[in-house]
Design goal:
about 280 residues, alpha/beta, eight-stranded mixed β-sheet, two-stranded parallel ribbon, 10 helices, 10 strands
Length: about 280
């Protein structure tokens, strides 16, 4: 069977982006060759690690990570954001190593937002980790990233599913993953996951760790982030209606919380399984 060459668009959505790993696994197993990736926020991170052939290493690290490890990665010393992100990026660099985007074996674009010029920024050259850091700069949470004299934040502010960078690709089809799909009424993980929510675990550690109240369930940053999710979901629907991909994979916006990185296996499995339900993928397989 002839291999199908694809452009893959990986959307923004925090921990929901872990489903990208399962989707990539399914595509690899079903004769799809990823020749181009356009990613935003978590999509840029997952896509970048895949392009550098380090996704398995990142996935292993995620699986070993517990809530306390996550909290230790949050350096509450940011200016313009709650967290500076330096500890996290140091850890990611240990996993990823040094890579330049132009040296990767496939086309890669990370999308960020210039908050002063109020426009998208496409990063498709230079250090890969810089591009990832710029794209994941969740407003209020991460400090904006200074890149070539620009202050950059999460690309999801303007384009949570960045299809435009793939317009001139010479691939067979474009597959987009929207992490802001319609919400579902039930929790698909309630019978299989024994993990507590991040906010519940935060509460347990509050007596031992100096964690800002703004990060708890009803805190300012959680409410702001929920608002950001709502905004992204609305923008994604408009963008996809105007510029549809050949195959669109929609992930429920309430599948998990932005910071619920304690559901790695469940989210990977969800991403893998949802590919098997999409008729367009089955027809092209």
């Amino acid at each position: 069977m002839k291999e199908k060459r694809i452009s893959l668009v990986l959307g923004s959505g925090g921990a929901r982006g872990i489903v990208h790993i399962g989707i990539i696994q399914w595509l690899q197993e079903h004769n799809y060759k990823i020749e181009s990736i356009s990613g935003c926020s978590m999509g840029a991170l997952i896509g970048g690690f895949y392009a550098a052939n380090k996704l398995d290493d990142y996935t292993h690290w995620l699986r070993e990570l517990d809530i306390l490890d996550m909290i230790k990665l949050l350096d509450f010393k940011g200016s313009g954001g709650l967290v500076s992100g330096k500890k996290l990026m140091k850890q990611l660099q240990e996993i990823l190593g040094e890579h330049k985007i132009e040296d990767l074996p496939l086309k890669f674009t990370a999308v960020a937002t210039d908050i002063d010029a109020q426009k998208e920024v496409w990063i498709n050259e230079g250090p890969l980790l810089d591009a990832i850091r710029a794209s994941i700069s969740l407003p209020l949470f991460f400090t904006p990233y200074n890149y070539k004299g620009k202050r950059l934040v999460d690309g999801g502010v303007l384009n949570p599913v960045p299809i435009a960078p793939t317009f001139h690709d010479s691939t067979d089809l474009t597959i987009s993953v929207n992490l802001g799909g319609d919400p579902i009424e039930h929790d698909p993980f309630e019978k299989t996951s024994q993990n507590k929510s991040l906010s519940e675990t935060f509460q347990e550690y509050l007596n031992n760790i100096s964690l800002p109240d703004s990060l708890t369930k009803d805190g300012m940053y959680v409410i702001a982030n929920n608002s950001f999710d709502t905004m992204q979901s609305s923008i994604a629907k408009m963008k996809l209606a105007a510029y549809p991909s050949d195959v669109e994979i929609d992930i429920p916006v309430n599948l998990c919380g932005t910071f619920e990185f304690n559901k790695v296996d469940e989210l990977i499995e969800y991403g893998y399984n949802i590919c098997q339900t999409i008729e367009a993928l089955k027809e092209k397989n």
